[in-house]
Structure formats: C-alpha cells, structure tokens
Amino acid sequence: MNNEVLLTRPSWIEIDLKAVQFNAKSILKHTDAQRLIAVVKANAYGHGAIKVAQALYDIGVRDFAVATIAEGIELRSALYYENVKIILLGVQDVNQIHEIIKYRLSPAVESVDWLDQALHGMNDSEILNVEIAVDTGMGRMGAHSKQALQDVYDKVKESSLLQLTGVFTHFATADDNNQSYYMKQLKLFEEWVESADIPKKYWHLANSGSSLWHYREINTQTIRVGSVLYGFNPGAPLLKMPIKLHSVLTLKSKIGAVHKLQTGESVSYGATYTAQEPQWVATLPIGYADGYLRRMAGMKVLIDGQIATVVGRITMDQLVIAMDRYHPIDTEVTLIGKSGNKEISIEEFSSYARTIPHEIVTSLSSRLPRVYIK
User: Fold this and answer.
1) Three-class SS of residue 104?
2) Could you please report the per-residue DSSP string of 311-336?
3) Sign of the torsion formed by the C-alpha atoms of 95, 98, 100 and 101
4) pTM of the model
5) Strand pairing of 249-254 and 257-261?
6) Please, what are the domains in the chain?
7) 237 preceded by a cis bond (ω within 30 of 0)
8) How many CB atoms lie within 10 A of CB 5?
9) What 3 state SS string does 150-207 have?
10) How far apart are CA 205 and CA 170, in angstroms?
11) Which has the closest alpha carbon to 284: 265, 297, 272, 271?
C-alpha cells in the first residue's frame, strides 16, 4: 500500500485489479464470448478508468466503452495502441467531430442527420468509425424503427469516409424480472438488424444483466459489460448471481479522534444521537462530500472484524461511530469490504442507502485516494 498517498487523506479506496481481471475472465467463460467490450465510463464506475483498462488490456481486452468525448480522450492517452478501440456511448456533439476522429473514438450514431452533419465537417482524408445505436425500448437514443436503422446503415455503406465498427442496443430490464419486455427488445433488435443485413460480427447487445442471466437466448460472440467487471450484482436484490465474482472495491478510513460520551451527551448537527449510558465514540475523516451519503446514519462499519455503528448526522467531512470498547486513534475502519470474517458488501451498502450499487461507486468522490492492489 502506498502510505504516501494515505498520509494526504486517512480515508481511501482500495481497488483490487486482479479481481477485475478475474471477473472479466469469469464472464467470458460464462457466456462463451470471444470478445469483451469493457465499459469504463464514469471513471470505470469510480474505480479508475486508466488503471482498470490497463489491467484488462494485460489479459487481452482490446475494446472499451466510455460515455463522453473527454473520457475517450483521457483513455486514449493511456491506451494509444492501434489495436485498441474506444466506443462513445450516448449522444455526442457533432461539432466535436475532429476531436472524435483525432483520438480514434467510435461514436454511437442514431440518425442520417447526425452523419450528414459529421460528413459536412470532415475533410476527405478523415475516416470516422461509427457504432449504430438501435433503440428497441430503452427510449433514450438510437434508430427507432426498422426503416430508420436501414437508412443509417445505407448511409454508412455509401460513404467512403464512414467505417462501421458495431451495432448495438441496450436492454432496459435484463437485470430484473420483466422478461416479457426483455424478449420484446431482443426480438426487435434481431428483426431489424437481420432485415438490414448487418453481419453478426458487428453485433453487441449483451450487457451485464443479459450476459449473466440471458446468455443462452442471445448472441454472445461479443459482450459489453460494466458492473460485472467491478464485482457486484446488477440485479440485486431481485436476482441471484449465477457465477462467483470477486469484490473489487474496499472503502476504508482511520479513527481521527476518540472520546467517551457521558450519559445525556449528544453528537453532530441536530443532536440526533444522545448517549443513554457512557459510550465510546470515534470520529472518521469522511463524509458526504466524499460520497458517504448523509442518509447512511445507522449503517454499520467494521473494526478488527467487529461491528460498530454510524451515529448522529453525517456531515460534509466527518462522521461519528459508536463502539463497544475503546479503539485508539489511527485504527483502521472498513466501511465497504471485508474485515476479519465479516463483510459489508456494496449490495448491502446500497440497499441501506435505498439505491443501487452503480450510484454508490460512482458517487465516491475524487478526494478519496485510490490505492491499487495488483
């Protein structure tokens, strides 16, 4: 562990890169896929896009997906190899077409109009790689009908400046129990893409949910996954994991102050917690500005494999825990992850927060140092 990093902030995140690699290999084996597109948008779901992508590159992954042009440029600066493809998911500003081409990014496109504007701004020496997005029911972006898809594909084929690199859709209910809606989307994608005669080598429609629970129903030659790489269940709590994944992220802090509350004494804003008897409490230098949400009061933490509890209101930079005995300053505390034979999983943490793991990990702020374990 890099103690110089920890000295700047005694609250930090540990990222297990071998766990990322294990999870990638596991989902490839589970689906019998030949190719994996690793979704590393939002700084690899808060885990660190460059470090995660480099770890995946080391085991043979050559395809990555981000959300924005800025994310794509940052990733390309680290993965400059010719054999690495970076897909831009979502809507992109066509006025940035030269930046997209310069950094060899492959934008998702949905319409002939967008392509016409892009071509108008390009010169004859430029080639734009495109991913055709198909909206089969997510309702956000993509060709919205069989004819719209055909028109976009025809436009790509007729221009020498455009190169098709993929065609995809995104499932709205692959990670819950709404199977009828999932099958409706799948049927539409297959019908529209086959009608347009787009070769299967370009297809990628298996996100984490469909790769985990629907891999027998769809084409999984190429899978496009995010949450699976980071070791959490995208279908929690409705669906159980069909494969074993390794936890990637651990959130830790250290006790910065400790004292004994006397009966009747309170802590933090609003005096919402009052000791009913003498009680050891400790302050941790982490709060909602770090992504430890204000509503997490009452959540457990782990000290030496034993449970302590967050009490009082969580503030911007600090929180307080109640302990069953004295622990000295600098004692390590686990807020997400394993300690001894106990674990606070990201699924348990997000359930307590009344949200999903995706929101938790992407909310952990940049002022929490990331420490990478290889």
Assistant:
1) coil
2) ES---SS-EEEEESS---TT-EEEEE
3) positive
4) 0.94
5) unpaired
6) 17-230 (3.20.20.10), 249-344 (2.40.37.10)
7) yes
8) 13
9) HHHHHHHHHCCCEEEEEEECCCCCCCCCCHHHHHHHHHHHHHHHHHHCCCHHHEECEC
10) 6
11) 297
Based on its alpha-carbon atoms, the radius of gyration of the chain, rounded to whole angstroms, reads: 24
Q: Measuring CA to CA, which residue among 167, 232, 233, 243 is closest to residue 205? A: 167
| Structure-token pair, residue 305 | 């494999």
User: Residue 205 carries which DSSP code?
Assistant: -
Beta carbons within 10 angstroms of residue 11's beta carbon: 24
Query: Which whole-number Å values give the CA distances from 117 to 112, 120, 134, 341, in the listed order?
Result: 9, 5, 19, 58
Considering only CA atoms, which of 7, 4, 3, 9 is closest in space to residue 365? 9
- Phi, psi of 174, rounded to the nearest 5 degrees: -65, -20
pLDDT digits (tens, 9 = 90+) for 76-93: 999 999 999 999 998 999
**Residue 357, amino acid:** P
Specify the amino acid at residue 269.
Y
Q: Could you tell me which residues are beta bridge partners of residue 309?
A: 300, 322
Residue 208 in contact with residue 199, Cβ under 8 Å?
Answer: no
HSE-up of residue 54 (Cα within 13 Å, Cβ side): 14
CA proximity to 277, closest of 291, 255, 262, 266: 262
Q: At which residue do the structure tokens 């919205």 appear?
A: 144
Task: Give the containing element (helix H, strand E) for 274.
Answer: strand 273-274
3-state SS record for 68-86:
CHHHHHHHHHHCCCCCCEE
Strand 306-311 and strand 300-303: pairing?
antiparallel
**In this structure, which amino acid lies at residue 348?**
E
Q: What is the pLDDT of residues 276-335, one digit of tens each?
A: 999 999 999 999 999 999 999 999 999 999 999 999 999 999 999 999 999 999 999 999
- Quote the CA–CA distance of 95 and 83 in Å, as a whole number: 26
Rounded Cα–Cα distance for residues 233 and 175 (Å): 9
Please give the positions annotated as active site.
41, 269
Interatomic CA distance for residues 180 and 198, integer angstroms: 25
**Crossing angle, helix 146-158 and helix 179-196, to 10 degrees?**
40
Rounded to whole angstroms, the Cα distance separating 64 from 298 reads 38
